[in-house]
Amino acid sequence: MAGxxxxxxxxxxxxxxxxxxxxxRVVLNPMHPPLIKEICAxxxxxxxxxxxxDAATLSRRGEDFTYQWRFGREFFARPDRDRLLFWGRVPxxxxxxxxxxxxxxxxxxxxxxxxxxxxxxxxxFDPTIxxxxxxVTTDVGFAFFATLFLYALRQYLGTxxxxxxAGCGVALGLALGAKFSALSLIPLAALLIxxxxxxxxxxxxxxxxxxxxxxxxxxxxxxxxxxxxVVAYAVLWLVYLAPADPLFYLKGLRTVQRDIAGDFxxxxxxxxxxxxxxxxxxxxxxxxxxxxxxxxxxxxxASVRRARRIGRLDELxxxxxxxxxxxxxxxxxxQIGVRYLIPCFPFLFLFxxxxxSLSSRRVSTLLAALLAWSxxxxxxxSPDHLSYFNQLAGGSRGGPRWLDDSNVDWGQGFVQLRDxxxxxxxxPYRLCHFPxxxxxxxxxxxxxxxxxxxxxxxxxxxxxxxxxxxxxxxxLLAQQYGDGPQNWLAHGVPEAIVGHAYYVYAIGxxxxxxxxxxxxxxxxxxRSVNNALHSxxxxxxxxxxxxxxxx
Length: 551
Description:
Blueprint: H1 10-23, H2 35-41, H3 55-61, H4 67-76, H5 81-111, H6 113-124, H7 127-133, H8 139-158, H9 162-176, H10 185-200, H11 210-239, H12 248-253, E1 265-268, E2 271-274, H13 280-288, H14 291-302, H15 312-332, H16 345-352, H17 361-381, H18 395-398, H19 414-423, E3 429-432, E4 448-449, E5 461-466, H20 467-481, H21 488-491, E6 496-498, E7 502-507, H22 521-536, H23 545-550
Helix pairs in contact: 1-2, 1-4, 2-5, 5-6, 5-8, 5-16, 6-16, 8-9, 8-10, 9-11, 10-11, 10-15, 14-16, 14-17, 15-16
């Protein structure tokens, strides 16, 4: 965690959370509820951190939606920024540990301790979980509170009591305070409570008809659901620091889509798609999930009837949440990262854990092989788990041919790039990096900035491209030239790949080749880059509408 630099959302989340605690008002970063930001900012209260502006100025400037990014830059423009970031990330790690404990407990309740261990293993060795569990972002934190709410709801439906219902309301309020996508938990809770009432009516008294029992139980369920929402609203009001406006949550919800336009050019499988693609999240999950996990899920589906049987309501609690959440993200979320699906992951791990209850030597051998494979995959990409892609995508090297943004690079590699440049001085160089809100010079990286349109036909010299820039440039070059020689990124071999996130290229003068006597892996890469550039001629795409749209 200490070896990863400030990522895209952290630049806004941690400073905003600290401002909430200091001023008592939720002003900055309104497109995300405050809970995770507040929790992560708590350690900063003990570090003597001063805000860049006073509360009155913040309140006035905070009305400008873009000011949050300037506030973040000023907040981290200090020598001890890495210390603040480290301690801000510690609560995020603790939330991920809480989620791990929930997964173990739930799986053990369903199929025994061995299943709990298997679910924990899948969680602990999932690269996407590991990458995001250490960041001040909302995805893993929301996954914890959403799972906590659904676990508490299942316990309440098993043994109803006023205290357990209140606990469900508290958990729902915390989930709603973590992320706006928690709104999907409300209809999901209604579905699960209604299903429990419907299924429970079959145990009605002999003196009561089935229809009457169902009507009575459904009416009682409606009352419980209403009380649940009242408690959740009260908790949410406290999370927002007791605002005077009773519609505070809806006010924040209206800002969610202001970050990204509806026709934003998202990238999928090497193609830029304005507005996105309906299968984006399914494809992203398939190429970012380790193959052993996919095989285990397939085995779990095939063995539903052979594994230890659980009740219909328990099955519904495993299947309905990931389906509802996945549908919500597919329809509404920005197509910039598989991380949005993280709240679905715990239920996939729980579902796969049933395979531990299969009593077969052949299955046990297969499980052992799959778990060993998972460890190898995890260790091979460490400590750069954010850049992980499975073999379907060609590994991490093939990742930028599929996805961009937080799937490949989120600004987390500046520390590794700085250390690489100290060990391998390259002289003057140009740098294209993820549009982070922290200047790379803060990490001692002083390359001349170069943007995506300019690297389509780059100038001579050393060029360092983040995986995000590589993904975008590859898509634009392929759109213009296909797999032809002008597409220099399709044929060029980088001198080095730093932290699985930064690609270092040596661009020679056009029409020249490196001396044959010096040829090695790096010079062969430079030769292919030079030849491609020589064939491409003038840059005909630098001013294209697609290029300008990406700046």
